[in-house]
Amino acid sequence: MNRHQYKITRRQLVERAVSVGVGLMAAPFSFVKASETRMVARVFFDSYGTMALRQALRFAGDDGFVASLPQLLHARTNASYDNRIWNTWFTANSEESVVTTPQGNHVVITVHGGGIYGDPARIERTLRADLNRHNVEGLTGQYASKITEHEARDLLHGRLPDGTEFPVYTYDDFKRGVPELPARYGVVLDFETAKKAKNGYDSFEVLRDEPLMIIRAGGVEPLAVYIDKKRNRNMTEAMGNQHRFHAIDPTQPQTRILKLGGARGGKNSDGSDLGRGRGYDIAWGISAGGLIDLARYVAVSPRDPSTSVQFLDFEL
């Protein structure tokens, strides 16, 4: 099994995120559990995304985690609007893959908590691959990351290239609610259903019932809570739900990394004034991007104050 296999349940992660909420992204921040162990989080940014992920995984260690998209959204719902987590963008430890089932059906499988490209070495292999269109690895014409037929088949069975296993749920089961969701899991959605989602900004009322958004947010209830919090920030009525399913060839197995947009003050968060801002100047909502980009991950790890100078008071 992967040495980063998580040892805590999603409920425990949620409880920790609730405690961390307001202080998230203070970089570093901490909170005290019942024992003396403190959970400490740090933001890892780099212009070369692989480096940021390597650093985040190293910090998380065996007992920590790199935050998935549902965890980032949950942290926002428990943070004040002036907190850093609301005012910049983040790369999530979540990914969406387009694969074909043995029955010939095209589906989207979303993996939260670390998928194929939760491994920096796999990212490097893709970025250094021959870009010949006949190569089974490398990048597609839309800069998605190619995965092999074997990797795609394993994803459907809840298995990563290193042997790590995780549960995979159908969308219908996931929407009904899964008790005790683990830290790492997958959800399968019919490709045509995902493709029907509006690419761009849509109203909160529509997004509440949008299958793609429900999966991205980690469930019906977490999405509803996040939408209410986001709506009240600037009294907006819409947010971005970006994807490329309308522009790709679903017969090519491929993966994109999920990202969470953010900008100071929530600028242009409803898409109503995009002419005055571009890229990092706007809170674009949720998107799925490629690997050839900047990255900003959040890693959380337990630290023992008795063995770390990080928690000592120093005299000036």
- How much helix, percentage-wise, in residues? 25-40%
Structural class: alpha+beta
Query: Strand fraction band?
Result: 15-25%
Q: How many strand segments?
A: 13
Number of helices: 10
Shape: globular
Average of pLDDT: 86
Q: Runs with pLDDT <50, length 5+?
A: 1-8, 13-34
Q: Quickly count the domains.
A: 1
Separation of the first and last Cα atoms: 46 Å
Radius of gyration, in Å, reads 19 Å
The sequence of SSEs as H and E is: HEEHEHEEHEHEHEHEHHHEEEE
The major beta sheet can be summarized as: 7 strands, mixed
What can you see in these coordinates?
With 316 residues, the protein is of the alpha+beta class. The protein has one domain. Helices cover 27% and strands 23% of the residues. It contains 10 helices and 13 strands. Strands 4, 5, 6, 7, 8, 11 and 12 form a 7-stranded mixed beta sheet that branches. Strand 4 and strand 5 form a beta hairpin. The longest helix is centred in the last third of the chain and has 15 residues. The N terminus is likely disordered.
Which characteristics define this entry?
single chain, 316 residues, alpha+beta, 7-stranded mixed beta sheet, 4-stranded antiparallel beta sheet, 13 strands, 27% helix, globular
Give the SSE map:
Blueprint: H1 10-20, E1 29-32, E2 38-46, H2 49-60, E3 65-66, H3 69-77, E4 90-100, E5 106-112, H4 120-127, E6 145-146, H5 149-156, E7 168-170, H6 171-176, E8 185-190, H7 191-196, E9 200-203, H8 204-207, H9 211-217, H10 220-234, E10 238-241, E11 254-260, E12 286-289, E13 295-303
